[in-house]
Amino acid sequence: MSKALLTVRDLAVHFPVSRGLWGGTAMLRAVDGVSFAVAAGESLGVVGESGCGKSTLARAVLRLIPATAGAVIWLGEDLAGVSARQMRAARRGLQIVFQDPLASLDPRMTIGASIGEPLEVFEPGLDRAARARRVRAMMERVGLAPDMINRYPHEISGGQGQRVGIARAMILAPKLVICDEAVSALDVSIQAQIIALLRDLQAEFGLSLLFISHDLAVVRQLCQRVMVLYLGKVMEIGAAGAIFTAPRHPYTRALLAATPVPDPLVERNKPLAVLAGDPPSPLLPPSGCVFRTRCAHVGPRCARDIPDLSEAGEGRQAACHYWRELS
After folding, report:
1. How far apart are CA 307 and CA 297, in angstroms?
2. pLDDT digits (tens, 9 = 90+) for 251-300
3. N or C: which end of the chain has fewer CB within 10 A?
4. 255-260 LR contacts (CB < 8 Å, sep 24+)
5. What φ, ψ does residue 17 adopt, rounded to 5°?
6. What is the C-alpha to C-alpha distance for residues 195 and 216, in angstroms, rounded to an integer?
């Protein structure tokens, strides 16, 4: 792997939550000691059930919410120690595309104004004509008709809205874009178009992607590596091909078993690994392995010892005491 653009070390985000009638507060461990790196031109998929900490992780990386502990190192500098002015400069190379395309746009601003707003912030010396040219060129690049420049968000579709979000993120030619469930609200056919667009932009600009999704089928199309989160912790991380064909962690196996396969014969014969119940509350996580209360392969060590994220063969790591017995 080439040198990392982004390195995250032991990142934690804990929120104090009132106990209500019982008084006092408890700590909700939304993200609990997550480490990973993203290299230049790489796409890393982050997957897991709703509530596992994916979106909180994305916002903590961008310092949109404060981290409780850990380091976010961007181009060799820990963002936790930089000033507001330095963080603002760093955000030129760090952009995000949100889940709901229309909710992320100001309804009072035209499409052109929304896409061009980063230019006003980071390149204030551009005159109006030059800014409009940049905006029209980016609109054309992401598949938006130039005559849409004066429309408002309520006048466009969800798919067009997501293209606007991508254009706004790409207008400054960033090095890394975080896609937070960027295609989950779209029809399947539109999803495929947006995935193809992101793949083309990645190749054209040498772009790195942190692609957050609960849809493993979408992640499989786009990402070279995959990180699996559960209750704020990393269960498994490694090359997408290895994880999708021979997952080491029981949770990863269960997620893959729940993912539909377009081949009827494969779908009919694939092993079942249904997860029982809902994830436990991050306010009261289980002792030892946080996944043990839903794991079909729980063993005597699981309640006692927290599994380390250790090498599990074929360039991947898994946080499971018994991955060798399961492989």
Report:
1. 14
2. 999 998 877 666 666 556 666 666 777 888 888 899 999 999 999 888 99
3. N
4. 255/47, 255/48, 255/49, 255/216, 255/228, 256/216, 259/215, 259/216, 259/217, 260/217
5. -125, 130
6. 13
Terminal Cα distance for the chain, rounded: 25
Side-chain-side CA neighbours of 218 within 13 Å: the count stands at 28
pLDDT at residue 269 in the model = 66
Write out the two tokens for 99.
């889940």
Tokens of 107: 């309804």
d(CA 25, CA 35): 27
For each of the domains in the chain, give its residue range(s) and CATH number, in order of start.
4-93+174-326 (3.40.50.300), 107-173 (no CATH)
Residue range 24-36: average pLDDT?
92
Are the CB atoms for 230 and 285 separated by under 8 Å?
Answer: no
Q: Is the pLDDT of residue 1 over 60?
A: no
